[in-house]
């Protein structure tokens, strides 16, 4: 158990991040939710007990229908209360109010520790984990773990690679760089020839920058709730300073842009050839296509390559993004809820539909190891077998990250420091020192003992 001051502070942190209070849907008003009156899907067996689920992926209804058709002993009542932050705000309201949460909640991996610290989700180690643990790799389980506990059933992930424009690479006679040193040299070659910037170093993507830190062997945090409020914070290590100084150098030399990603302006630049590469995750093709990339003048020019490495003799795979199903502590029947968490999006039909329509990149090894998935000729990449060549090896090699209840403050502060790097007011090393100082001070304010 955490000390009371730490738990209280984390609760206040989460509440402060929520929007105005709103009524949570799908619950029975007394805790978890056996009431199926708010379902967005059809209950196939009305005589079976019902488990409520909040999830936001576009094919959630189809996935829930698949589960309900295959299971007579339990049915899922699905509600889409919003994606990401909107869902978290509603979940936080239910946590703070003591009722109204769903039995099962979709949670991104970097949010799990925040909810675990509030005792809002439960450990699944003894609720079916042993039956499914071989379905996922080390990194997938590490990302949904807090200490020795398992607090989520993995769904998908974002093994990282380098998406690049073949037309630009052909125009300037370059090949995909395999190291970050080559990346800089290639970017300089393109710039010297009057070409576009090579990539972007976006302040609004702190999760991606954190992944770069891990790729260089950094361990930004140590956290185990069993250690009575202790936390290790090492955000200005030599490995992290090297990463931030590297990107600061690219910015200073105008080899990369500094525009925020996921904006209409950025997408227009991607379509228009303003960037030679897009460093991103396996979910990126689906996102880019949804934003209109690859449909007009830039159709047929995209390809994928492995992410450059710091040390090619000791490659490190990294991940950006991914979600899981967590069981709420308000669940009426935790064992039944865990069956849903482990079972939804786990059947073959749902997994196939997810990756074939580029909604998710599944982490289930039954998909990763399948010839159909590995040999799939990705339309966005003009038929390239990108899963086999880039994303499956990265997913299999990924070892996971350590997330903490301070994650949202850390991301906010890292965003500010990237902005300082990008406007020239701080070097990478200076940004790392400021990041360390701010996060340590904040952790101590929240009642943690920083070791």
UniProtKB/TrEMBL annotation:
Keyword Cell membrane assigned: yes
InterPro entries from the UniProt entry: Bact_solute-bd_prot1, SBP
Database matches in PROSITE patterns: PROKAR_LIPOPROTEIN
Alphabetized Pfam families for the sequence: SBP_bac_1
Source domain of life: Bacteria
Keywords, ordered alphabetically: Cell membrane, Lipoprotein, Membrane, Palmitate, Signal
UniProt KW Lipid metabolism keyword: no
Extent of the signal sequence: 1-20
Full protein name: Extracellular solute-binding protein
Protein species of origin: Microbacterium ureisolvens
Classification of source organism: Bacteria, Bacillati, Actinomycetota, Actinomycetes, Micrococcales
């Amino acid at each position: 158990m955490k000390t009371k001051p730490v738990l209280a502070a984390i609760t206040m942190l989460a509440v402060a991040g929520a929007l105005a209070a709103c009524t949570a849907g799908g619950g029975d008003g007394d805790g978890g939710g056996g009431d199926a009156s708010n379902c967005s899907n059809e209950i196939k067996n009305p005589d079976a007990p019902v488990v409520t689920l909040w999830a936001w992926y576009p094919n959630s209804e189809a996935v829930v229908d698949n589960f309900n058709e295959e299971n007579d002993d339990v049915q899922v009542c699905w509600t889409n209360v919003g994606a990401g932050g909107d869902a978290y705000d509603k979940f936080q309201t239910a946590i703070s109010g003591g009722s109204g949460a769903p039995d099962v909640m979709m949670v991104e991996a970097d949010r799990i520790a925040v909810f675990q610290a509030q005792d809002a989700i439960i450990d699944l180690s003894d609720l079916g984990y042993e039956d499914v643990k071989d379905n996922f790799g080390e990194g997938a389980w590490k990302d949904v773990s807090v200490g020795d506990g398992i607090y989520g059933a993995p769904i998908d992930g974002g093994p990282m690679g380098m998406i690049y424009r073949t037309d630009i690479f052909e125009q300037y006679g370059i090949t995909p760089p395999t190291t970050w040193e080559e990346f800089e040299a290639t970017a300089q070659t393109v710039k010297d020839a009057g070409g576009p910037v090579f990539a972007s170093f976006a302040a609004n993507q702190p999760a991606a920058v954190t992944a770069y830190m891990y790729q260089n062997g950094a361990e930004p945090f140590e956290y185990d709730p069993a250690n009575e409020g202790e936390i290790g914070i090492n955000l200005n290590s030599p490995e992290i300073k090297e990463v931030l100084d590297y990107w600061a150098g690219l910015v200073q030399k105008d080899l990369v842009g500094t525009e925020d990603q996921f904006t209409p302006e950025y997408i227009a630049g991607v379509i228009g050839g303003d960037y030679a590469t897009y460093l991103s995750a396996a979910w990126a093709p689906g996102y880019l296509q949804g934003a209109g990339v690859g449909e007009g003048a830039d159709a047929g020019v995209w390809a994928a390559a492995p992410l450059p490495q710091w040390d090619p003799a000791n490659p490190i795979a990294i991940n950006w993004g991914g979600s899981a199903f967590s069981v709420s502590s308000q669940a009426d029947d935790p064992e039944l809820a865990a069956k849903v968490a482990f079972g939804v999006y786990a059947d073959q039909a749902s997994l196939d539909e997810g990756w074939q329509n580029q909604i998710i990149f599944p982490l289930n090894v039954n998909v990763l190891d399948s010839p159909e998935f590995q040999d799939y000729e990705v339309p966005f990449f003009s038929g390239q077998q990108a899963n086999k060549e880039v994303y499956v090896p990265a997913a299999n090699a990924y070892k996971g990250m350590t997330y903490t209840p301070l994650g949202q403050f850390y991301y906010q502060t890292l965003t500010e420091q990237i902005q300082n790097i990008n406007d020239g007011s701080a070097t990478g090393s200076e940004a790392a020192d400021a990041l360390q100082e701010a996060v340590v001070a904040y952790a101590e304010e929240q009642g943690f003992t920083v070791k």
